Amino acid sequence: MKLHSDRFALPFFRRSLIGAAALALCAGHALAVNPFVVKDIRVEGIQRTEAGTVFSYLPVRVGETFDDEKSITAIKALYATGFFKDVRLEEENGVLVVLVEERPAISTVDFTGTKEFEKDVLIKALKEIGVGEAKIFDKASVDRAEQELKRQYLSHGLYGVKITTTVTPIERNRVTVMFNVDEGDIARIKGINIVGNKHFTDKELRETMALSTSGWFTWYSKADQYSKTKLTGDIEALKSFYLNRGYLEVNIESTQVSITPDKKDIYLTINITEGEKYTVSGVKLDGEMFGREEELKSLLLLKPGSTYSGELLTESNKRISDRLGTFGYAFANVNANPEIDREKRQVAFTFFIDPGKRAYVRHMNIVGNTTTRDEVIRREFRQFEGSWYDGNKIKLSRDRVDRLGYFKDVTVDTPEAQGTSDQVDINLTVTEKPTGNFMIGGAFSQAEKFTFTASIQQANFAGSGNTVGIELNTSRYSRTIAFSQTNPYFTDDGVSRSFEVYLRTTRPPALNTGSFTVKQTGGRMSFGVPFSETDTVFFGAGVERTTIETDSSSPQRYRDYVEKFAHIPGGVGSATTNSLPLTAAWARDSRDSAITPTIGRFQRANLELDLVGNSKYYRAVYEQQWYRPLTRMVTLALKGEFDYGHGIRGTSYPVFKNFYGGGIGSVRGYTSSSLGVVDPNFGDALGGAKRLIANTELQMPFPGGGPDKSLRWFGFFDAGQVYQENQKMRLSELRYSAGLGISWISPVGPLKLSYAKPLNEKYLDRIERFQFQMGTGF
After folding, report:
1. What's the rounded mean pLDDT across residues 289-304?
2. What are the residues whose beta carbons fall under 8 Å from the beta carbon of 264, sequence distance 6 or more?
3. Phi then psi for 26, rounded to 5 degrees?
4. Which of 313, 455, 507, 634 has its CA 20 to 30 Å from the CA of residue 730?
5. Topology (CATH level 3) of domain 279-354
């Protein structure tokens, strides 16, 4: 016991050990506390805890009688706070003295040796289980934290991990907690053995699994690192594989996971009972169908006489539910009841339809938009609060938000509104991505070695949905400075407005000594009017001033242009022309995503017309992109573009409006902008007034990358050519190429690589087999 001063020396020896008495009572002993009236309450031993906090847990106040029951209650309450490792209650001349010994507080939590996980992620995770800065130190919580860390490492295949925890006391009753981690080597899957399969080979079944043995690409996919979650998913994938091929009663009997003594190699064994293969003998509908039985029956994908497929069964259920959802029945329940005939190996299904109540949309919530304003997303919704639930409008809303191009991922779920039976909430969750873009591109050829291009632009400025910024583009052949702004909702009903002012200087590619310069200064404004959910029509006007500078080595057609407009014999010098182009365009976009589309179509037609400037011409462009999934993992992508320009009222098509072809975006394998007629003196590509481009891609997930759409490889076939104004467009003059490429939406931006083999190159064609384009976001 502690003596505070001589003045209290004598009374101190009469201090009663109330705490001891209370503990004795808790233990069932007869020792009791003599009740007394509390004259005052004093707290001793606190360092960080406020005295008021202790008072708040005491069941007695000054002037009240303190007894056995209150003593027990007080001690239990103070221990329960977790703040103290020792509590005593004593009485001193009617003063209740509370003596406590505080538990230390955690000053810092740190880690050494962690490579698999980010420190910040670990610190946040441990704080949620009670081990973190300013938390009260508890040995049991630290032990739990250590075990949780081990569990996380084991889930990543690091079975040799060793963790030691060091707790160091520091001043003011605090401690530092240090987790020392020796991650060891990653345990990798050495073998996957499948037992019981008779109708399919081990190789066929292993190809359906996310887990695999080590291979060329497992450094990226980490598919050779075992995890229980992945194994569970693979078991379901194996079941689906069999169910989709008629094996209705397939069963995964058991799985065994074994690890070698050195904890470096893992072996998996999966035991399968395949069962028999079934065909569908009949399909019918039952339940409430609102007189639409034939319409709903047409949605069924399972047909009598076909092999049973679990995927088609699930999709049939979904199609009927979705169809009922367009009428407001958000809770429609469709169950397929099988009738199995094992002797004939046939199964018949009755689809029972329960539409439930018609539902309204209560709230539409947006989650995850840290930069983009709510209104930018909400104005794309076609489903509204307070109206009937419509599954088609909800999907359209999701697709329109995804097509904005501001988000990595867009998902929708429709939970039932709590406390109601006929309302749903719609939760749209988005994952932001950088909307600024810094793009670099290049290629390598034996003739020109390395070529480089770069540009910079900002979209979704300050989360407003507007594209605002300064575009800077520099390459070996061109320079651009442009200020542009696009407001997709210039009016509330979705009319967009775009304007741009620019200064462009172009020196088209030249292998030899031919040279010229085109300088363009101008501006334009256009408005886009939506006519449907996928169609927009654009109208605009602009003004442009063009100066062409030539010398004696310039291509003849550029010197002819200078001679015509500047009246300079020989055409060596400069000429300036003005134009006032009018534009009209139409675009239709039904793709499911602007970033990684897998289904849908994009079409664009544009007409530029100048009737009053020095160079009277028209320029038409038509482009179409088409996407169709061939399988769950493979997408066929087709792209075609036809461009046509011509002079008006006897004038020639202006040479500075020429189209060019070759390189990424047109015909890969040929040098950028090299297709078409070349200058007879210098061999430089001149471009043309007409262009035809066709591209075919077969897009697939990268080997070992699973269904990840951000990393894909593709095989391609390209065709295209550029023609002069008065030249006939002969398909026999098309250039073709084929090859392989990789598309990756990397952490630093989109990256595209291609290696192409020209299939019918001609004399003077300029070949560039390897080409790339890379960008980064900010």
Report:
1. 92
2. 160, 185, 187, 188
3. -60, -35
4. 507
5. Ubiquitin-like (UB roll) (3.10.20)
Q: Whole-angstrom Cα distance, residue 741 to residue 320?
A: 40
CATH number 3.40.50.300 given to 6-102: no
Is pLDDT larger for residue 564 or for residue 155?
564
Helix (H, G, I), strand (E, B) or coil at 200: coil
pLDDT tens digits along 535-574: 999 999 999 999 999 888 787 888 888 888 888 888 888 8
Beta bridge partners of 738: 717, 757
Distance CA 226, CA 158 (A): 9
* Per-domain residue ranges of the chain: 6-102, 105-182, 188-273, 279-354, 360-432, 436-777
Q: What CATH superfamily classification does 360-432 receive?
A: membrane protein fhac (3.10.20.310)
Distance CA 391, CA 360 (A): 12
pLDDT tens column, 639-691:
999 999 999 988 889 888 899 999 888 999 998 888 988 877 766 778 899 99
d(C-alpha 25, C-alpha 35), whole Å: 14
Residue type, 564: K
Question: For 104, which DSSP code?
Answer: P
Q: What tokens appear for 313 in the block? A: 């069964």
> Which CATH number applies to 436-777?
2.40.160.50
- 648: left (phi > 0), else alpha (psi -120 to 50), else beta? beta
Give the pLDDT score at 686. Answer: 80
Alpha-carbon torsion 104, 108, 111, 112, what sign? Answer: negative
Give the mean model confidence (pLDDT) for residues 228-245: 91
CATH class of the region 188-273? alpha beta
Q: Which residues of 144-182 are buried (b: 16+ CB within 10 A; e: fewer)?
A: ebbebbbebbbebbbbbbebeeeeeeeeeebbbbebebe
Q: What's the pLDDT at 261?
A: 87
- The whole-number pLDDT of residue 778 equals 38
pLDDT of residue 21: 46
**Cβ atoms of 66 and 32 closer than 8 Å:** no
What is the value of pTM for the model shown? Answer: 0.59
Return all residues near 152 (Cβ < 8 A) that are at least 6 apart: 117
For tokens 């002069």, the residue is 724
